[in-house]
Amino acid sequence: MIYTVTFNPSVDYIMKLDDFKEGELNRTSLTEKYPGGKGINVSRILKEIGAETTALGFTGGFTGDYIKSELEQRNIIHDFIEVSGDTRINVKLKTSQESEINADGPRISDDNFKALEEKLSSLKPEDHVIFAGSVPGGHKDAYKRLAAKLYENGIPFSIDSEEEKLTSTLPFNPYLVKPNLFELEQITGKSLKSSEDIRDAADALLESGAQNVLITLGGDGAMFVNAEYALKLTPPDGELVNSVGAGDSTVAGFISQHGKGITEQVKHAVAAGSATAYNSDLATSQDIISLLDKVKIEKI
Ligand SMILES: Nc1ncnc2c1ncn2[C@@H]1O[C@H](COP(=O)(O)OP(=O)(O)OP(=O)(O)O)[C@@H](O)[C@H]1O
Ligand SMILES: O=P(O)(O)OC[C@@]1(O)O[C@H](CO)[C@@H](O)[C@@H]1O
Description:
The chain has 300 residues and is an alpha/beta fold. The protein has two domains: 1-19 and 28-170, 3-Layer(aba) Sandwich (UDP-N-acetylmuramoyl-L-alanine:D-glutamate ligase), CATH 3.40.1190.20; 175-299, UDP-N-acetylmuramoyl-L-alanine:D-glutamate ligase, CATH 3.40.1190.20. It has ten helices and 15 strands.
């Protein structure tokens, strides 16, 4: 079973406007809402690809109920811990550009956190856990603590997060880490201008303990490195509709093909990421399948 952990789920509220004028009344041309949060998006894509998944994390209030009912409609198993505040609403503003306003999210109490630790303590080495996204106020060491526990119990895990949430897990050998270019720059504290710069930074993550490193580069695709391979991955052509969740789809594509070889894993990763970028909601299995053979894979 592949478990996803979303510490801070969200209702993603997409607002489309021709133009946004600060300080004035603006009216939308279209609004949409989706159950969001990085791990939840990963579970949604895993389910599309046909992998068994359970969504874990923290939900609360009417927005939490909305997320759970949306997952149930898609037959996605969930086992969230109830927190006392309302799950946040994140606004995704679409004008000629994409802008995002992500809310802070409800507080996770110590008891809530312990309840998650207990759930994770019953997992088996054949399971896999994907930790993704922000952690609302407090529990700064959540990623490190949970990664250390899973490592001790021999349970593989992957990380889609930023800064020390990602780097603090490296000593515990994450199966996959997936920073985007901006997040990799934050980690290295350098501006990474060339492919060589990105490769060097990815190699440093491998040396620090990651087993596989996938750097997503938006419309430029991705770079993959592990102990055996260094690959440049170019996405198929298409028109960008909505990049929200593209990175999460990439993670789901990669993990869903675990055991089927790196070529299959990276192909699914980029096809899933781009299929989501070319859609208003997350990609469907058909969208992903249609792009699989169009992903270009080159050794570097
Ligand atoms: N404009 C685009 N055209 C084609 N593919 C895209 C585009 N933007 C994203 N993708 C696909 O999605 C993958 C992930 O994109 P990106 O680097 O934007 O991830 P991210 O920043 O983690 O995304 P998010 O946080 O919104 O989920 C890319 O590797 C690529 O396959
Ligand atoms: O605030 P976080 O937890 O970093 O990111 C949350 C979020 O932007 O990530 C997903 C896309 O990757 C969205 O569904 C969601 O709104």
